[in-house]
Design a protein that fits this description.
The protein is elongated, with a radius of gyration of 24 Å. The chain folds into 2 domains: 9-107 and 160-211, Alpha-Beta Complex (UDP-galactose 4-epimerase, domain 1); 216-260. The protein is mostly helical. A two-stranded parallel ribbon has the order 1-2. Helix content is 61%, strand content 2%. The N and C termini lie far apart (70 Å). Helix 3 (77-90) packs across helix 8 (193-208) and helix 4 (108-132) packs antiparallel against helix 5. It catalyses: a long-chain fatty acyl-CoA + 2 NADPH + 2 H(+) = a long-chain primary fatty alcohol + 2 NADP(+) + CoA.
C-alpha cells in the first residue's frame, strides 16, 4: 500500500514527532481519520475518467467522486495516534532532538504554551549555541516551517469531516477481474492500518531520512536512554517549579516556621 514519500501530510507529521521536533499538536481525538493509501487514490483517479468514457449516455448531472475511506474503516484519530505512538516505540527513528512524546490536545492556550516552551525556546537556544561555535543556524527557520504547517493542519484536525463516497465505491463493482488486479481501489477490503503505518515509518526512515533498517536495534537503545533523560528532566523541572511556587506564595516559609 502506497504512501507519500515527502514531508507533506501525515508522513511529515510522523517524522517530526518521531524526531522530537514537534512537541504539541492540536487534534480532536474523536474525529474520524480520512487518510487512505495514496495508490488507492491514484488508481481511483485513473478509473474515474475510464468509467466516464465507457458510459454510452452522458449523465444529466456531473458525477462527483469523493475518494475517501469507507465509512466502516474510518477510525478515530485518537486511536490512530495511540497506534502511532506504540509503533514509534517499536520502530524508532535514529538520533533526534528529544524523546518523541508530543502532547495531543484541543486546548489552544495549552498548545500555545507548549509551542513556546518546547518549540521556540529550544530553537532559539540551539541557534544561540550554533552562533557561539560559528556554525550555521537553522532551528528557528525549521520551527517557522513547522509552525506554518501546524497552523494549516489544525483546521483539518480540529473539525469533523464527512464525505459520501458511494459513487467512488461503485466504481469497483464495475471493474473486470483483470482490471481489479491492476487498479486496486477496494476501500471495503480488509487491509491492515497497522501494516500500512509500519510501511510508512519504515519507508520514511529509509527513503526520506536515509536511515538504514539495520540501525533499528541501536535506535531502540537510544530511544530508551532518551526516555529516561526526558522523565528525569521533567521531574526536576516540575520539582523546581513547585519549590519556587511554594517559596513565592510563602507556604514554604510557613512550613519552616512550624518546624522551628
Amino acid at each position: 500500500m502506497g504512501w507519500v514519500d515527502n514531508l507533506n501530510g501525515p508522513t511529515g507529521l510522523m517524522i517530526g514527532v518521531g524526531k522530537g521536533v514537534i512537541r504539541s499538536v492540536l487534534v480532536d481525538g474523536n474525529n474520524r481519520s480520512e487518510v487512505i493509501p495514496v495508490d488507492y487514490a491514484i488508481n481511483g483517479l485513473i478509473v474515474i475518467p475510464y468509467e466516464f468514457y465507457k458510459s454510452r449516455k452522458r449523465p444529466a448531472e456531473i458525477p462527483v467522486y469523493n475518494i475517501t475511506n469507507a465509512d466502516h474503516r474510518k477510525a478515530k484519530m485518537g486511536d490512530v495516534i495511540t497506534m502511532c505512538k506504540r509503533l514509534g516505540r517499536e520502530y524508532p527513528l535514529n538520533v533526534g532532538l528529544w524523546y518523541p512524546d508530543a502532547v495531543i490536545t484541543t486546548n489552544k492556550i495549552y498548545h500555545q504554551f507548549n509551542v513556546l516552551m518546547f518549540h521556540w525556546l529550544p530553537a532559539y537556544f540551539l541557534d544561540f549555541l550554533l552562533l557561539i561555535f560559528g556554525q550555521k543556524r537553522f532551528m528557528v527557520r525549521v520551527q517557522n516551517k513547522i509552525s506554518t504547517g501546524l497552523d494549516v493542519l489544525q483546521f483539518f484536525t480540529l473539525n469533523p469531516w464527512y464525505f459520501k463516497s458511494d459513487n467512488f465505491a461503485s466504481l469497483w463493482d464495475n471493474l473486470s477481474t483483470e482490471d481489479r488486479g491492476i487498479f486496486n481501489m477496494d476501500m471495503h477490503s480488509d487491509y491492515s492500518e497497522e501494516e500500512y503505518l509500519i510501511g510508512c515509518i519504515k519507508g520514511g526512515r529509509e527513503y526520506i531520512l536515509k536511515e538504514k533498517l539495520e540501525d533499528l536495534p541501536k535506535a531502540r537503545f537510544h530511544h530508551k536512554i532518551m526516555y529516561v533523560i526526558d522523565r528525569v528532566c521533567k521531574i526536576i523541572f516540575v520539582g523546581l517549579f513547585v519549590y519556587y511556587l511554594l517559596k513565592w506564595t510563602g507556604v514554604l516559609a510557613l512550613f519552616s516556621s512550624n518546624e522551628q
